[in-house]
Amino acid sequence: MIVLANDGISPSGKQKLEAAGFKVVTDHVPQEKLADYINNNDVVALCVRSATTARKELIDACPNLKFIGRGGVGMDNIDVEYARDKGITVANTPASSSQSVAELVMAHLFSLARFTYDANREMPTNGHSDFKALKKKYAKGIELRGKTLGIVGFGRIGQAVAQYALGCGMHVICADIYDVYTKVSFVIHGHGEVVVDVEKVELDELIRRSDAISIHVPKQADGSSVIDSKEIAKMKKGVLLVNAARGGVIDEPALLSALSSGHVAGAALDVFENEPTPSEGVLSHDKLALSPHIGAATLEAQDRIGEELADLIMAEMTTA
C-alpha cells in the first residue's frame, strides 16, 4: 500500500511505515496533478501539512483514498466532515507540536520585550557607525517577569505556552469558548512537578487586563477575525501581541494601524492572511517580529508528528 506524504514526513515516521510494509512517497506532487497521481498510483493514504489542500473536488476524484492525515493541529486545508461522510478517515497530530509552538511564542515575546528582532536588522548595517544611537534606541525594553500574559484559546498549545510563561514568572490568564481544563502542570528540574490553576476569564476581561496576548484559536468558519480594531481599542496602551495560530485571527490592517499609532507596542506573527505571499505592509513594518510559519518546525516535533501519523495510518489500514 502506498502512502503519499505530499508535504514530507520525518525519517523516523517513514521508517516506521516502511517497516510495516508500506511504500512511502515523499516527492511533492503539485496540487493540480494530485488527483491523477493518487488514482494512477493506487495511493491509499495522503499526508499533508499546510501546503497541500484536500478539498471536496479532490475527495470526489479519489474514490480509493482511505486516509487523510494532517501533520500538525489545524485542518482548515481539509474538508474534514465531507471526507468523513465519504468514509475517509481524517486525523491530525495535535499533541506533537505543542511544545515547539509554545517555545516560538516565548521567543517572540522575549524578542519584542527587548527589541532584538529590530536590533538584529540594524546592527549589521549601522552598528559600526551608529552604535551609541542604537544603544539608546533599544534601551527601553521591559521584563516579562511580573507581567500578565493573556492566552486566547487554552487547548494543548495554549497550555504549553502557560507552562513556559509561568516558569518565567509571568501571571497567566486565559479565555476560551469551551469549558477547558485550566490546571497547568510542569516539572522544575531538581524540584519536581508544579501545578498551577490558571484563571479563566471572559475574552473582554482578558483583553483589558493583559500586558501581552498570545492567540491560539483556529481560523474562524466565517472568516472573521478574533482580534479586530474594536478589540485592540480595549487593550492597554503598549500591549504586545503574538499570533502563531492562523493567519487572519488578528486583523492585519487593524494591527498595522495600532502599531503605527503606538497603541500596540509590538507584535509577532508566525502566520499571515495571504500565505505564502504576506502583504508588503506587514513584512516591512518596523514594529513587527516575523517568522515564516515555523511554529511546529523543530526536529523534535517533526519526529513526533511523523511517528504519530505512521501509527494512525497503520491502525487504520489494519482495521480497514
From TrEMBL:
PROSITE patterns: D_2_HYDROXYACID_DH_3. The keyword Oxidoreductase applies. Pfam families: 2-Hacid_dh, 2-Hacid_dh_C. Residues 7-314 form the D-isomer specific 2-hydroxyacid dehydrogenase catalytic domain. GO terms for biological process: L-serine biosynthetic process. Keywords: NAD, Oxidoreductase. Residues 106-295 form the D-isomer specific 2-hydroxyacid dehydrogenase NAD-binding domain. One of its GO terms (molecular function) is NAD binding. CDD domains: PGDH_2. Belongs to the D-isomer specific 2-hydroxyacid dehydrogenase family. PANTHER family: D-ISOMER SPECIFIC 2-HYDROXYACID DEHYDROGENASE CATALYTIC DOMAIN-CONTAINING PROTEIN-RELATED, D-ISOMER SPECIFIC 2-HYDROXYACID DEHYDROGENASE FAMILY PROTEIN (AFU_ORTHOLOGUE AFUA_1G13630). This is 3-phosphoglycerate dehydrogenase. It comes from Cryomorpha ignava. The lineage of its organism: Bacteria, Pseudomonadati, Bacteroidota, Flavobacteriia, Flavobacteriales.
